[in-house]
Amino acid sequence: MTSLLVIIVLVLLAVALWQLTKIFDLTQVGCDSDSSQVASDDDNDVQGYLMFGFLAFIYIFSIYGLFAWGPLVLHTPASAHGGQVDNLMNITWVLIFIVQAITQVLLHYFAFKYRGKKDQKALYFADNNKLEAIWSVIPAVVLAGLILYGLYAWTNIMFIDEDEDTIVVELYAQQFKWTARVAGEDNVLGKANVRYIEGVNVLGVDMSDPYAQDDIVVSELHIPKGKKIHFKMRSQDVLHSAYMPYFRAQMNCVPGMVTEFAFEPIYTTSEYRELPYMIEKVANINAIRAKKSIDLVAKGGTVLDPYTFDYLLLCNKICGASHYNMQMKIIVDTPEDYKAWLKEQTNLVTQVKASTAPAPVEGAMSTDSLKAKDTVAVSKIAMK
Ligand SMILES: [Cu+2]
């Protein structure tokens, strides 16, 4: 409501200013000053130099941005295919930069050179086939090359060999959390449907499906280094997007269908934490947090916990009010640690059974003790 009022006030202010300028224009009618609407040579000179000013602004801002925010871009990729994504991205950047540098200089220089001058007439220039061929063929060839390389990289990355030895993991998106399901020993996920969602079975896994018997549901995912992980994404409610920036992986999660992405992690979490750039980044974040903590403590708050790096699965589609907080930790282990983690997990069937088994009533007799009583009673009757 407040923002609506602010917008109305701003619109009214703009209308008022516009009316004021009209009144000012009316007061100038009949004055001696030059009220001609035709630009003079002086006006055109000013516009010409302003073109150069704008050109300088574009380049200075670009160079500043490169140095100020350049280090914030994603660094070393943590997946086998990540290098290809980065390569494609870097080639695109370089091409854009070259084209932008040349075209902007030409655009602004010509705007200056051919600015309006008294008695100067525009040249009528019908066409020039040679020029047009040059500026059509060069972009066409460059773009075709870029698109072909992009398609090659895309097919390479997205191809999932069904016969390859992978680990199948389901990523389940819902407002506003992620849940993962590891396919277990058979490496096949049991069927699932929203109708089966009940109690601890939050993913709606069909418990009668033989493939579902060893499925493991977790809220913090472990995966091994050096093995391809085949992710199958589902969504319960709206469009989400599974985004794992360090693995250069992103895929939409669409209600009613399963989408897929596969990649091989090449650094364990602890190895990635030890990369020099990451050590520096974490130190920097912690310095900022320590500074902030001083302010917080002064205001009666608590000290911020130090930050440690972890791979995260984020949501990259604005899916609702708490979208920003939709994340799940992914821990890349060594194959041995992964096996140990897998052993510790309780599968979904066991969890469901434990949650549906009736709780023992206090004072009630167990079936064994009842049986024992029966035996005593029977022997008593026999003695009679
Ligand atoms: Cu989301």
From TrEMBL:
Main location: membrane
A GO molecular-function descriptor: copper ion binding
Enzymatic class: translocase
Organism: Flavobacterium gillisiae
Residue stretches making up the Cytochrome oxidase subunit II transmembrane region profile domain: 66-161
Location of the Cytochrome oxidase subunit II copper A binding domain: 164-344
Keyword set includes RNA-binding: no
Localization in the cell: Membrane
Plastid keyword on record: no
Annotated EC: 7.1.1.9
SUPFAM superfamilies in alphabetical order: Cupredoxins, Cytochrome c oxidase subunit II-like, transmembrane region
The protein, known as: cytochrome-c oxidase
GO biological process: ATP synthesis coupled electron transport
Keywords: Electron transport, Membrane, Respiratory chain, Translocase, Transmembrane, Transmembrane helix, Transport
GO cellular component, one term: membrane
Transmembrane annotation, as ranges: 6-27, 48-70, 90-112, 133-154
InterPro entries assigned: CcO_II (IPR045187), CcO_II-like_C (IPR002429), Cupredoxin (IPR008972), Cyt_c_oxidase_su2_TM_dom (IPR011759), Cyt_c_oxidase_su2_TM_sf (IPR036257)
Entry similarity comment: Belongs to the cytochrome c oxidase subunit 2 family.
Entry membrane topology: Multi-pass membrane protein
